[in-house]
Every structure is written in C-alpha cells, then in structure tokens.
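quick one before i forget lol
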Amino acid sequence: MLSLAAVLASLYPAVTVLPARVVYSEWLRVIQRLGLAVAVAGVALVTIN
C-alpha cells in the first residue's frame, strides 16, 4: 500500500532519534516524546484502516 509506505518513509527522523537515545543516552524532551507517540499512533491508525 502506497499510503503505508509514505507514512513509514516520513518517519526517518524518528529512526535517528531512537538510536541516539539508546546509544548516546540522549534525553528526549516531553514534546519530543509526545511527537513520537503521535507518530506511532498515526502509523497504527493507517495500518488498521
């Protein structure tokens, strides 16, 4: 599905943030955590539909 591929491709910034958090122990601000949660929820909604 093109819609799912487009959503997943737009998440590339989150893919760089998560390893930075794990590898370099970088802190995420509350707004960044909220943004990641909203992005994950959006992907879940697209895949359900």
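fyi The mean pLDDT is 83.
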